[in-house]
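Usage

Read records sequentially. Each one opens with the input sequence:
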Amino acid sequence: METRVAVISIIVGKDGDVEKLNAILHEYGEYIIGRLGIPYRQKGINIISVVLDAPQDLIAALAGKIGNLDDVSTKTAYSNV
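and closes with the structure output:
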């Protein structure tokens, strides 16, 4: 199956459901290469980058699930590889 490398950038607001977010990421754990989380205390948000190597439709499904969470924003960037 053809895979692509992608980065999903996530911003979790003050009212974001972190437990649901972590459960979703755990569900896709086999495709995650790395994850970086940075709390931005002055703004009361958390910034997370997730790097994946997975089929494009799976990446889109993951980004969609994350984007449907309350007070969570996401954008995905795909590599050409």
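Summary fields computed downstream for this record:
- The first strand starts at residue 4 and ends at 12.
- The radius of gyration is 12 Å.
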